[in-house]
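testing teh design pipeline on a random one, pls ignore if ur not involved
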């Protein structure tokens, strides 16, 4: 299973970051994740204007990172 993992940081406090793993309606392939990752992040940012995207990645069956 492929999952999109995004790291968002507060615009006014760039050291304050949080990881988001959006729930998708259906499983996606690595290619779909790569092609649509920024698009999905933009949707999240539209609802959370105080945040900015720091980075994103596609992950296959890995647990979440710690101490970001």
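output:
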């Amino acid at each position: 299973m492929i999952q999109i993992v995004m790291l968002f940081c507060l615009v006014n406090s760039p050291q304050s970051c949080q990881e988001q793993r959006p729930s998708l309606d259906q499983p996606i392939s690595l290619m779909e994740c790569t092609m649509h990752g920024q698009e999905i992040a933009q949707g999240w940012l539209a609802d959370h204007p105080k945040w900015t995207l720091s980075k994103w990645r596609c992950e296959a069956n890995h647990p979440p990172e710690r101490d970001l």
